[in-house]
Amino acid sequence: MSFSSLGLSDALMRAVADTGYTTPTPIQQQAIPAVLNGGDLLAGAQTGTGKTAGFTLPLLHRLSTDAVGSKLTSNNSPRAIRALILTPTRELAAQVEESVRTYGKYTKLNSTVIFGGVGINPQIKQLKHGVDILVATPGRLLDHMEQGTVDLSKIEILVLDEADRMLDMGFIRDIRKVLAKLPPKRQNLLFSATFSDEIKALADGLLNNPATIEVARRNSTSEVIAQKIHPVDRDKKHPLLAHLIKSNNWSQVLVFTRTKHGANKLVEQLGKDGIGAMAIHGNKSQSARTKALSEFKDNKLQVLVATDIAARGIDIDQLPHVVNYDLPNVPEDYVHRIGRTGRAGATGEAVSLVCVDEHDMLKDIEKLIKQTLPRDVIPGFEPDPTARPQPIQLRSGGPGHRNGGSGRQGGAPRNKPAASGNGNSSGNKPRSAGGGGNGNGPRPANGGGNAPRGAQQHRSGGRGR
Ligand code: AMP
């Protein structure tokens, strides 16, 4: 199948040709015609499947060919926002908007992105200037709504991208507030990697007779990703990582740590080994995060160390190596992490350095992905068979350590009941490293959204959103 059979406009076909993509991915083959049809869509697809172009291309087509119904405004009246794309994280918002620009460059449509952690005034200016397509994280969008600096009354298409993540991060109340301000007649597209009961409830209330598509989850099908466990002692993880990077000549490695502190420490240690590394996490300023990411993408930086939430949606073509320096405490995050590699048909490798403390986490992950991962002990790094597990530190710092200046997504513990319908088998374990110490952590989930919005406490503190 080729892109030309999908019925996209010439302007969009030119932009696709510029990217060099020749064949639509499975999600694109299904989502593009469904969205062009004008109906609602419920799509099961993870990062790495090509989902962004799957909704961006038909959205641009509908708006630019005016199929949705309203007219492009003349130059002298400000444009009304016609499409709203909500994403859970700033990085993903920025990347989605970059895609909107890439694919929309031969159309007359314009776009902007708004997220927390950066000044609000330039965003207000942008919005005033007039925008057709707005990409936003829910928290900062709400700020604009409350200040009256954004008008959502002309929205024709709404996209919830990575809806499961937005719910995991406690954005449900924010999303509902946004939905309440949208015109009732609109096209709704909901993308989610997983379908918990919470997602199903959201979809039921939001979508009108949706087309439903699902592409294979990377964890069940992705033979292109070679996964491996390196059993190792807790205090040998860093030398083992340095050894793996050097002996295999890895040139571009994404490394996941559980905590921000762990990320910083690892960057320092790798630096001493002569391995260039930078960290992205919630305590880093937005500009530091953007810089690290762009150097990594441009292959100027060998190792990027990230915590889960900061890494959400990182979109790097053909990333060859992902290392779980620590296993994630949420099994689903393992799937999201390894989804960073082997994308769009390229082969990738995901290795996990697992110490005795993490055996239960590994069991949870293997249960979720329905596979036993191969163990590969590296000579010289054999784990001590008599080692006893120690409790795992799930957070970076204690209360009072919370304000890293990074903003809105940080906050209080989720306190979310474990029985949230997403098949997490980790019992009562905290599902995230949130807590007072995680500036990039989730917002309070409120177990269904009725409790007071805990984020209020952040607002007066001058934290960016
Ligand atoms: P996404 O799932 O939207 O995060 O996209 C995953 C990656 O696949 C991105 O790096 C895209 O640039 C790339 N991609 C998207 N569509 C295609 C395509 N049709 N062929 C090859 N690569 C693609």
Could you explain how this protein is built, in words?
- It catalyses: ATP + H2O = ADP + phosphate + H(+).
- Its main location: cytoplasm.
- InterPro entries: DEAD/DEAH_box_helicase_dom, DEAD/DEAH_RhlB, DEAD_box_RNA_helicase, DEAD_helicase_RhlE, Helicase_ATP-bd, Helicase_C-like, P-loop_NTPase, RNA-helicase_DEAD-box_CS.
- The chain has 2 domains: 212 residues, 3-Layer(aba) Sandwich (Rossmann fold); 145 residues, P-loop containing nucleotide triphosphate hydrolases (Rossmann fold), CATH 3.40.50.300.
- Helices cover 35% and strands 13% of the residues.
- Helix 13 links the parallel strand 10 and strand 11.
- The radius of gyration is 22 Å and the shape is globular.
- Adenosine monophosphate binds next to helix 3.
| Percent in strands | 5-15%
| Terminal-residue CA separation | 42 Å
Helix content, binned percent: 25-40%
Q: Which structural category do the helix and sheet elements fall into?
A: alpha/beta
- Provide mean pLDDT, rounded: 80
CATH H-level name of the largest domain... which superfamily?
Answer: P-loop containing nucleotide triphosphate hydrolases
Poorly predicted runs are: 69-73, 218-223, 396-465
Shape: globular
Radius of gyration: 22 Å
Annotated CATH architecture of the largest domain: 3-Layer(aba) Sandwich
CATH class type of the largest domain: Alpha Beta
Strand order of the largest sheet: 3-4-2-5-6-1-7
CATH topology of the largest domain: Rossmann fold
Number of helices in the DSSP assignment: 18
Associated small molecules? adenosine monophosphate
